[in-house]
Specification:
The chain is 65% helix and 12% strand. By secondary structure, the chain is of the alpha+beta class. It has a single domain, classed as Outer membrane efflux proteins (OEP) (Up-down Bundle), CATH 1.20.1600.10. A four-stranded antiparallel β-sheet has the order 2-3-5-6, with no helix packed on it. The chain has a two-stranded parallel ribbon with strand order 1-4. The longest helix has 67 residues.
Amino acid sequence: MVKMHKSSMGFILPLLAVCLFASFIPEAAWPVTLDDAIKSALGESYVIKEQAEFVKRSRFSYISSIDPFLPRIDLDSSYIRTISPMTPISTYTSDLRDTTDSRDVYTFTGSISWRIFDGGERWAKRKGAFLVWEREKERFKSVREDVLFSIKSSFYTALGAKSIVGKRQEALQAAQKIYNLTRGRYEEGVARKSELLQAEVRLLNAKIDLQRARKEYEKSLESVKSLIIIQTAGPFDVEGLLSEPSFRSDYKSLNDRALATKPEIKTQEKEIDRLMRVYDEKKGAWFPKIDSAVQQTRQDTQFFPGGRSDAFIISFSFPLFDGVGRYYNMQGAMSDVNAARQRLAETKRTTSLDIARALKDYELSIEDVRMFTELVREATSNFNQLYGEYMEGKGDILNLLQSEKDLASANENYVGSLARAQVSLSFLEKAAYIGDRW
C-alpha cells in the first residue's frame, strides 16, 4: 500500500482544483479579420489553384509551339528479310557480289530537315498559343475577383449578423429592464397583472429573437469558414469594424475604366485575336510548302552497312485541288471570329448594365444607412421619454413596449444597412474592377 505524504497531498489537491476550473473555462474564439480571410481565401481557393494550372498548361503549350521553327533530326534503321527465292540487290552497297547469296538487307538513314516556307501556318499557331496563354491569365484575374467578392460578401454578412446579435442582446436587456420595473410596480400594487404579463411576453420574445440571431450568425460563420478553407474544430469568430463606406464615384468614369481593364473583356479580346490566328492558319493551306533536308543513307547486307549515299533535298509541294475544304474552313474560322466579336459586344453591354445597377444599389444602401441612423436617434429618444413617463406612473405599458420594439428594430435595420452597404460596395468593386489592393 502506497502512502502519500502531507506535502504531496498539499501540492496535488490545488493542482486538481486548477485543472477542474480550467475545464469549465470556455475556449477563446479564433478571431479572423477581413485581411486574414482574404489572404487565406486567395491562397487556398480551389478554383484559383485550378485556373493557375490552366495558365501553366497554356504556357507550356506556347513554349512547345517553337518546335516547327527548329530543324528536325531523324534516324531510321531497318532490317529486311526476303522470303521469296529472289535475291535483293542493294542500291547503295559497295560490292554487288556480296548480295548474290544473301536475302538480308540492313538500312540506316539519318536526316536533318527544315521547313523553309509554309504560308504563315507555323507563325499563326505560335501566336495563337501565346494568345491562349494571355487569355488564361486574364481569366485567372476574373476568377480571383469572383473569389474576392465571395469572401468579402460572406465576411460582411457575418459581421452584420454578429452586430445584430449585439443589438438583440441590448433589446433583451431593455426588455428585462421593463419587466423588472413592471414587476416592481405590480408588487407595489401600482401596475395591473396584464401589464406584467405583457412585459413578460416581450421579454420571452426578445430571448427567442436573440437565439435566432445567434443561429444565423453561426450559419454565416460556416460560409466564411468554408470560403477561407480552414480546418479547425475550435470556436471561430469574425472581427472588424462595421462602418459606413466612404467610396464616391460617377457612372461614366467607372464604366470607362471597366471597359478598358476588366478581365472578362480583356479575355474576350484575347479570344478574338486567337481566332484571327486560327483564320490565318486555315489560310496557310492555300500556300505552297517548301522543305529542305540533308540526308545520308546506308544500305548493305552487313549489320553495319557500308554502302553510303549523301543527298541534299529541296522539296516543293502545293495541292492544286483537294476538294472545297480549304475554302469552307476559312469561312468557318471567320464565322468564329464574328461570333466572338458579338460576344465581346454583349460582354461590354452586360458590364455596363452591372455597373449601373451596382451603383444604384450602392447609392440606395448609403441612403438607407442615413435614414436608419436618423430612425435610431428618434426611436431612442421616444423610448427614453416613454420609459421615464412609465416610471413616474404616467405612461402606458403598451406604448412603452411598442417603443422598445421599434428601437430594437431600428437598431437591427441600422447594422443590417451597414452590412448591405459594404456588400453593395464589394459588388460594385467587382462589377467595375476597382479597389483590388490584395
